[in-house]
Amino acid sequence: MMNFQGSHILSVSQLDREAIARILDISANMAPYAARQKRCTVLEGAILSNLFFEPSTRTRVSFGSAFNLLGGYVRETVGQENSSLSKGESLFDTAQVISGYSDVIAMRHPQMHSVEKFAKGSTVPVINGGDGANEHPTQALLDLFTIQSEMMHFHKGLDNLDIVLMGDLKHGRTVHSLSKLLSLYNNVKVTMVSPTALQMPDSVVSALEDSGHQVIITDTMAGNLSCDVIYQTRIQQERFASKDEADLYRGHFSLNKSIYQQYCRENTVIMHPLPRDSRPEANELDSDLNDLDSLAIFRQAQNGILVRMALFALTLGVEDQLTQYEKEVNWHTNKR
Ligand code: CP
After folding, report:
1. Which ligand 1 atom lies nearest to the CA of residue 61?
2. Beta bridge partner(s), residue 265
3. Is 322 in a helix, a strand, or coil?
4. In the CATH scheme, what is the homologous superfamily, with its name and number, of domain 12-135+304-327?
5. Superfamily for 137-298?
6. SS3 content of the chain, % helix, strand, coil (to 5)
7. Confidence (pTM)
């Protein structure tokens, strides 16, 4: 069994099915704490350093809220311009210093593998909040948690899943990490819909095919969207050489209610890691889908709190205390 305590979480490749099942189970147990129906202070006095060197709304704030909900404090650094990295300090030196101030570090950085490089200098666990176009492991875990929760309504699980990944599959780190996790399950069908120039990297396709899964690669939506889950993504303009280049691909695979009703199943679950680009020229997920129960995007974002709480509990080794704490709280409650 994987020992999480003191470990960095840098890539989904570190995880097997048993480790994922443990994370997802603990995430589910976090729901009453996240909803503040129950209170928990197992991380009282502990400090999270949130280092976000690239824009973020969900990942940064949910890491912080998750830590607060377990009783800990959060220190934030946002933007390279506000960090001494802009004065030429190395990632290793920054890690040596910040890990001396913290119990755990969450980090996002625009360069691939930069978080791994940073972790080599850290004396405390480092959690990858996204490193360039490489990976976004905590997003993939919350995506898996969401798929599991949504599929439960249809008496399905993560095996035998029929999923469509759509949009900028070349640069979208969330779909890279999610595909690697899906390769661990049985009999998964993955349809990858993207412009030819923005296809999924070969290494990610191979990971699925080598595990015996069916992969369909196409640049056409018509006839390819009948599935359990459609996972839409944004054109990742920040990974292109110029806005003009990104503009070549924007708006080609927009999903709206009319396309959904024409090509998806009646209950196809719609996911997106967010942010969705709502500008008219992009609009990859139209707001006319907002009234559909099958639009899971905001439940998905909310699940980020649960999964990140679970990861903090595991990497800081307080998961057992949480269980113990719950037993004691129940015992005191029952005594009254
Ligand atoms: N899904 C996601 O990573 O969102 P943010 O960029 O807002 O953190």
Report:
1. 8
2. none
3. helix
4. Aspartate/ornithine carbamoyltransferase (3.40.50.1370)
5. Aspartate/ornithine carbamoyltransferase (3.40.50.1370)
6. 45, 15, 40
7. 0.94
